[in-house]
Recover the amino acids of this structure.
């Protein structure tokens, strides 16, 4: 693993600057990198950048797991988008902190179409664009064609004409000729997105900051990768989570079931390509739903039919999962891996990950001994293994402030006792800054090589990123309470930033 470090979790869409249009953008990363460093954080962990559909809010249900969502492209200095055009777009989007994704999408895609149209009209297509298209043809060709056909029919690929569904070579060639302008536009958008991303990565590297990304478990069924690799999926079944105390019937995520045997037969070609692509974007790769790579819980079409695990038994699951993790490790190259090993995870999976040298999560609130028994106790972070990622929460959970408020006093007392912070924290009171810092300091001091905290918990904010099971415009929309420029000018924030930096230095997670 890399050197001992602290990091901050924040989705790219949550960033906010004077320049961004309604939601976070790629070039907003530069001031975020500066803020992270000021806090003593040398890692910024993001959620997937993958492009999602027009009405899809979750970045974990992508219409392409290789394409960067054009919504993240920064409009500043984009060809064909001047001040007057941007001013009109800003009026249309408005000044609210949270803007409907559909509104931002409408305005941003219109600007991107304008930029592409004017660039082509002026003959400004560059050698850099041609080089990008050639280097990324392994995913870009299918993606751009898929998006162009999708735009034409405005429908799922499974309802397209039969010859396009089965990818008849003559039909695909005809579509490429007919839709050449649209295909060129989608290629151009990805070129701009990846060019901006490369600039942001270069700035991060120059400042000694690593960027973490997320390898989502699977694209959605209506995606470029599933259309282009239909044999790699069993489209009669879908992926989900097994029954637990919160969902007695399990969760149906709607993601297509991987056809693991077919994938094995072709050497896991799609998986290898995905990981190589991710390693070109990130310094750290978080493997989403890692237990699903060992045993995939899946459902048939009948809503009354219970789900099953594939493979079926533990011995097969261990062999299967370790084969895939070894492939991911090989293709990731220099990128560091993190396993999202939360939820209903059998003990053998964590033991397997440890043997493979892949750190899993230690979420402080969930690390307990004898859970549910009278002698239940929290695990002191001082006892976390070095091969782990320590944190207070994930993007799917409430903030530390909210969690504390909702716990009975006896649970708070158990946490305070486990962390040996009774002198600093009164479990009867609400969580003020000094109490929060006592908890954070205990976590910072953990042996875990990585410690990545949601930005809300570093500043004591209560807003959350995602409420699992919630599908509406209020979910996956969290943004900073003010612009990064205002955050850096605020005296209160400056004081808070300095305190976090001091904690990072004291616990040897940051060297000035």
């Amino acid at each position: 693993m890399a050197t001992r470090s602290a990091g901050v979790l924040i989705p790219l869409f949550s960033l906010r600057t004077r320049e961004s249009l309604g939601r976070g953008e790629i070039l907003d990363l530069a001031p975020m990198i500066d803020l992270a460093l000021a806090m003593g954080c040398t890692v910024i962990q993001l959620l997937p950048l993958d492009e999602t559909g027009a009405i899809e809010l979750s970045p974990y249900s992508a219409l392409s797991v290789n394409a960067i969502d054009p919504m993240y492209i920064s409009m500043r200095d984009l060809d064909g988008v001047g001040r007057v055009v941007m001013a009109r777009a800003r009026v249309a989007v408005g000044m609210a902190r949270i803007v409907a994704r559909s509104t931002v999408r409408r305005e941003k895609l219109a600007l991107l179409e304008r930029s592409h149209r004017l660039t082509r009209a002026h003959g400004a297509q560059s050698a850099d664009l041609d080089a990008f298209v050639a280097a990324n043809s392994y995913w870009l060709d299918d993606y751009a064609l898929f998006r162009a056909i999708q735009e034409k029919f405005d429908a799922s690929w499974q309802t397209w004409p039969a010859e396009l569904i089965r990818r008849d070579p003559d039909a695909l060639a005809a579509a490429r000729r007919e839709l050449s302008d649209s295909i060129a536009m989608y290629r151009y958008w990805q070129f701009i997105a990846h060019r901006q991303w490369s600039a942001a990565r270069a700035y991060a590297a120059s400042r000694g900051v690593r960027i973490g990304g997320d390898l989502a478990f699977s694209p959605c069924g209506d995606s470029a990768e599933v259309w282009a690799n239909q044999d790699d999926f069993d489209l009669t079944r879908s992926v989900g989570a097994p029954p637990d105390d919160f969902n007695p019937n399990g969760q149906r995520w709607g993601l297509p079931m991987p056809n693991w045997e077919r994938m094995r037969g072709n050497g896991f070609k799609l998986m290898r390509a995905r990981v190589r692509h991710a390693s070109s974007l990130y310094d750290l790769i978080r493997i989403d739903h890692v237990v699903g790579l060992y045993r995939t819980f899946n459902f048939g079409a009948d809503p009354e039919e219970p789900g099953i695990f594939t493979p079926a038994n533990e011995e097969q699951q261990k062999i299967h999962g370790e084969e895939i993790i070894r492939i991911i490790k090989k293709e990731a190259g220099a990128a560091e891996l993190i396993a999202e090993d939360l939820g209903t995870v059998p003990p053998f999976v964590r033991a397997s990950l440890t043997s493979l040298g892949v750190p899993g999560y230690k979420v402080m609130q969930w690390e307990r001994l004898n859970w549910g028994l009278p002698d239940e106790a929290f695990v002191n972070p001082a006892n976390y293994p070095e091969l782990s990622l320590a944190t207070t929460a994930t993007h799917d959970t409430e903030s530390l402030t909210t969690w504390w408020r909702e716990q009975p006093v006896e649970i708070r007392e158990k946490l305070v006792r486990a962390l040996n912070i009774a002198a600093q924290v009164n479990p009867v009171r609400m969580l003020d800054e000094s109490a929060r810092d006592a908890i954070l300091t205990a976590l910072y001091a953990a042996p875990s090589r990585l410690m990545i905290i949601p930005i809300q918990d570093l500043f004591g904010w209560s807003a959350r990123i995602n409420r699992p099971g919630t599908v509406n415009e209020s979910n996956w929309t969290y943004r900073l309470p003010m612009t990064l420029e205002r955050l850096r000018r605020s005296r209160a924030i400056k004081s808070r930033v300095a305190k976090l930096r001091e904690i990072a230095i004291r616990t040897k997670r940051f060297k000035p």
Q: What stands out?
A: The mean pLDDT is 95. The radius of gyration is 23 Å.
